[in-house]
Amino acid sequence: MREFEFNLSMEELEKRTNKDYLMTKKMLKCDAPEYLSLQEGDKEALKHLVKAAYILEKINMQIDCHHNLEFKAFLESEVEKGNKQAELTKILFDAQKGMNAIDTMSNKINLAKGIKEFPGKGVYPEDLSKEEFHSILTKMINEGKIEEVKKILTQRSVVERNSDELIGIDYIDKFKEDFSKMADEIDKAAGTSTNADFTEYLKLQSKALRKADPMLDAYADKKWATLQDTPLEFTITRENYEDEMTGTIVENKELSELLEKHEIKPIPKDFLGGRVGIVNKKGTEALMAIKKYLPILAKNMPYADEYEQNIQPADVGTSPALQAPSPQGEGQPKLKQTMVDVDLVAVTGDVGAYRGGITLAENLPNDDKLSLSIGGGRRNVYHRQIRFISDMKKLQERLDAILDKDQHQFYLDEADHWFTIGHENAHSLGPKKACETLGKYRNIIEENKADMGSLAFVDLLTELGMYTEEQRKQIIVTTITDNFLKSKPTLSQAHRVRTVMQNKYFAERGAYDIIDGKIHVNIDKVVPIAKEMLAEIVRIQIEGNFDKAEKYVLDNFVWTDNMELIAQKLQKINKTLNGRTEAELAEKLLKE
């Protein structure tokens, strides 16, 4: 077994694993009424789905870092020997699902000395530089090895050296044994599931794990995106925020032109997560209220006549706010968009990794996925246990420190959930193309679009009756307040970079002021300014120009004195550096 040297001292480990510095999000417990009320067949299915999700976590650890599994084995061995440093290190390893991560202060966390994080994570060779990567691809294309290059640049391959060239191996082939074990568990779940639609999806998903065929994934994704009234939730999440290597290709003009000539799209690699849960019917009903408005929102997106989008615009006049829509039915566009609120049993792999934060909700499949090209839709899944606030006293301390007291009445933690609903739905609005030409700025631009899409339509949805005037103010004030961070993020943190960009943009246009060290939101200015930013972002996506995207991000990604002022206050109140999930029910089911 390989020996590793711990990178964090005992003092640092004791601090980071202390409850004041380590946030815990608790998944469903064994006695949760949501679990106890399931039919026996679904309880049995849930057990197998949990097991499948944890097998997927093992796979994702390998594509996250070449050394994760051997470091995990080393930690477990040392813990058995009574090594306290290993015990505390393992708490962080389990929390961030790997050796390398980032904390809530945007500091890089490396748990072992000498093992740093590379732009290509575990999906590219560790010793492969950006320059060599580009050079090898250029040489292979010039030698006519087009199909080989396509396999290297697909989102579903691990790239390895092959003499002086590279080779792309499909995930399913690379991790065949573990994917086969996953498929076995999913088949067992399909055998006891009580819901026909869910069972059909599980069977399709199992097939997709047994054979390296992207179309099988597409069929499974297409079915998954239709699921609405099912008791259980099971998702294999595939998102590409972690791959910082593939996106560098657009910076090489010669290589980019060669790829375009041969119709090869350099799509960043997917990282894999597992989500297992129980659909909360009451929460889901509340989510569905916005669905009937989506075609009108699509109609009102900037430059809507210049691109295709996932949601088909409503055939209404220029003043849709005056025409409240009827529920979907005759005369209404058919929406390929489902949404569910889920009580979580387990989040594993990429979706469960607590790295600076953890996912509140997801809108999948992403635009680069094949299922959307064969008529598939998208599905929003919201994470109840992640969004719950456990310490209302701390929340009040935060408001007292940073928000104008007269505006406390408009801050509501539930309004953050309403904003998130708008954010996830906005991912389905705007240009449908995946915008790979924006390179490393692609995800920042897309996340910014989703935020601005959520804010830009608050007034329209209020006019349509979705929100009351009070709720409108709550969404606006809560969103602006929550946009302030504890520290300046790194450019690799797409979800956080966009909030800094918005803060600067809003400040310069008067959406808020800092008065006596506290935020005062100029409520009526926020939505018009959000519309401006949304239009600028969509224009960048339409044009797909890397240089323009880079300039836009760098011009707005500026950490101002006022941001630092609020950050210092937030740091005094919230000492959290790391976070983790606790899954009591899942751990019990794993042992059965």
Largest beta-sheet details? 5 strands, mixed
CATH architecture of the largest domain: 2-Layer Sandwich
Helix content: 40-55%
Beta-strand content: 5-15%
Q: What is the global morphology?
A: globular
Q: Specify the CATH class of the largest domain.
A: Alpha Beta
Count up the helices. 26
Q: What's the number of extended β-strand segments? A: 13
Distance between the termini: 29 Å
How confident is the prediction overall: mean pLDDT? Answer: 94
For the biggest β-sheet, the strand order reads 6-7-8-10-9
What's the domain count?
2
Radius of gyration, taken over Cα atoms and rounded to an integer in Å:
24 Å
Low-confidence stretches: 316-333
Can you tell me about this structure?
The protein is an alpha+beta fold and 592 residues long. It has 26 helices and 13 strands. It has helices at 10-16, 33-36, 40-64, 68-80, 84-96, 130-142, 146-153, 171-174, 176-192, 196-208, 214-224, 253-261, 281-287, 294-299, 349-352, 384-387, 392-402, 413-426, 442-456, 458-464, 469-482, 494-508, 523-543, 546-556, 561-573, 584-591; strands at residues 22-26, 100-102, 108-110, 157-162, 165-170, 232-239, 271-279, 337-348, 361-364, 378-383, 512-515, 518-521, 578-582. It is globular and about 60 Å long. 49% of the residues are buried.
